[in-house]
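Each record in this resource describes a single protein on a pair of labelled lines. The shape at a given residue is found from the number at the same position. The record below illustrates this layout:

***
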Amino acid sequence: MQLGELEKLVLHYLWSGIEADAKQVHNALGETRGISVNTIQSTLDRLFKKDLLSRTKQGHAYLYRTKIDREALLAKLIANVTSDFVEEGEHSLIAAFSSASANLNDAQLDKLEQLIEQQRKLRKGLQ
């Protein structure tokens, strides 16, 4: 899955907890950038078809809201990219994360440790 710049802007806008129709998104993002309402509507529809937004009909318009949070989208994008390069059970992905973590400071590494521990607890709770 690839995301265009406008798709990313729309997601960031809607991640702030907003539920909005195309006109509202256009007012917030499109007007200052010279983007038409139709382009915003097309972008919202593409994000809906990518299963990143949900929508409900209200009058003649759809109200859109995010269906996936930032972290879940990042996980989905990483899985998408790595699926072409990592075989089932292979440790390349773990090695790649280890390499990437070389750029993290101590506070970020501590946070990563906390998140890993949370995942372990969740997994134990599901088993």
About this structure: Strands lie at 53-58, 61-66. DSSP finds six helices and two strands in the chain.
